Each structure stands twice: as C-alpha cells, then as structure tokens.
Amino acid sequence: MPWAIELRNLHKAFEENQVLRGLDLSIEAGEILTILGGSGTGKSVLLKLIIGLLKPDAGEVLIEGEDIVPLRERDLLQVRRKVGMLFQGSALFDSLSVRENVAFPLREHTRMTEAEIQDRVEEVLALVGMVGTEAKYPGELSGGMRKRVGLARAIALAPRIVLYDEPTTGLDPRNVDKINELITDLRSKLQVTSVVVTHDLQSTFKISDRIALLHEGRIAATGTPMEISQSGHVVVQEFLAGHL
Q: Is 178 inside any structural domain?
C-alpha cells in the first residue's frame, strides 16, 4: 500500500525568499501527523502544495501514489476531491448560510440531487456538533463554531485526507479542546489521514501520532510525541525550549 502522501525533494521560493529547500516527508494512511515550525518557515505553503493550490519549483507531491505536480487543473480537481482542507480563517462565504456554505462543494463537484445534498449537509454538521445552525450566517457564529462549520465543509465530499491550517488559533481553551477532539474523532469515524499545521505545542502532543519539525526549508526531525519530547536533536531542543 502506498503512503497517503509523499513529498520528495520539494523546493519552493517566492522571489528571493527560498521557503523549501529539498524537503522530504512521508505520511502514513490513517495517521495524524502534525507539522511544527516557527513563523514563516513554510508550514502553510506545504499544505497548499499538498492540495495543489501551489506548485513546487522542483520535486514531487504524491497523493496515494500519484504525482500531482504535472497535472492540469481539470485533473487536479479529481485529486482535490480526496483532500479536504480547513483553512486558518475558516474561509466561509459571509453571504451564505451555514447550510449553503457546507453544500457549496457538493453543488460544485457532484451531481447529487437537492435532497441528497441536504441529507449530506445534515450528516456532516452532525459529525462536527453543529446541528441546528443551518440557517445562521458566519457573522452570527463564534470563532470556534466557524471552525467547525469550515470542517464540515472540508469533509462534505468524503475526502481521504484532511488538512488543518492552524485549527486552534484564536480560540479559547474550551474551543481548543473541542477542535482537538474533533480531529481525533473524525480520524476514527471517517478513517482519514490528517495533516495538522500548528504552533500550539499542547495540542500537538495531545493529538499527534507523529510530529515533523520544519526548519530552514527541510524536515529537521520526525517522531512520536514521546520521541520528539525526549529528542537530543539540537534544533528540536531549541524549538521546544522557545515554545514551552
């Protein structure tokens, strides 16, 4: 069985800023892997490469064994159906209700009937604990609720991989716990592979099967939470010391 995601020798620069410098990382099907790194190290760029919103300057991005880098936009759409993403700011449409936000990808990418769409919307809202909010608009929701609606939309197409970009940023401790529970619950209920980008160390050690530390454009270290916390690697020790 191939890896869910393989990143091989990835390079990415924005003008003079070399963000990724030959990055390699393999992610197992069904695991929760968290990517740590300082601000501006390229964590969010990495997620956008995985979902095909950006193309690397060099290297390969394999999703379930298929390199998506050379794919045209039309073919990329098929791959993106396998990958859901919770964006940092939730990226909900303010002018659409919760129901319409979650239904959006179903209308765009499937031929489901209106009744099937409504059933699926209710199903995924139930999974994230947001039943009863269908008629509300994003502006009426708290930050934690918006994150959960964004997550319902991310899983509407039944992806096999879910990407989380700073899922707990700006949330109070109670909502942080709720989001962390959702990430682990959805992994077991939906059998998805989860990739989390965060700077929240407490959440990282709570939810992760493995942790990868991004440093100077490459993965400096990977390991279980126990292995990372006890690592003798200088970069790991310096990162943990600066963020604990």
A: no
